[in-house]
Write a structure and sequence with these properties.
With 161 residues, this protein is an alpha/beta fold. It contains six helices and five strands. 26% of the residues are buried.
């Protein structure tokens, strides 16, 4: 079976273990093996930084093993996607792996970011206006987008054939 890495801030959910099992079940229904970050068995190391490094390396290994990545790019702790997930998407793209993303569509960036003054946000930063739902460096690289994880997994299964 083809393997897909399930990227996203889902590991921070209160029900993260059960949610990961659900995602893996959806993968299995489509003939895929879901690689969920919390499946890595990381023994706490002497320092938090060492443990963090071990987690990062284990997740990188999962991405390398995967045939593709399905990534949750919903807003996380604000209006942007989780930075760790965005990093994982970039790694997958750099490795030549297909990426399919999902998030509830709420319009393009200009519609999503509160516009304070002539296309600039409250901090004064220009809001890019390319009619894309995420930053162009993401939106121009993924293979496709779906509004739900179930649809995204189904599309990745189709893509991997």
């Amino acid at each position: 079976m083809k393997k897909i890495y399930l990227a996203g801030p889902d590991v921070f959910r209160e029900d993260s273990i059960a949610w990961g099992k659900y995602l893996q079940t959806v993968c299995e229904q489509h003939g895929l093996t879901g690689l969920y970050p919390l499946d890595n068995d990381i023994t706490p190391l002497p320092s938090p930084q060492q443990t963090a490094h071990a987690i990062a390396q284990a997740n990188m290994q999962m991405i390398r093993q995967a045939d593709g990545v399905v990534a949750n790019l919903e807003p996380f702790r604000g209006i942007e996607p989780d930075s760790g997930t965005v990093f994982e998407v970039g790694v997958a793209i750099a490795l030549g792996k297909p990426v399919w993303v999902y998030f509830p569509h709420t319009g393009d960036l200009l519609q999503q970011v509160p516009d304070i003054d002539a296309g600039r946000c409250a901090q004064g930063w220009l809001i890019e206006d390319f009619s894309l739902p995420r930053n162009l460096m993401l939106a121009c690289q993924w293979h496709g987008y779906s509004p739900t994880v179930e649809e995204a997994i189904a599309e990745m299964a189709r893509l991997l054939g």
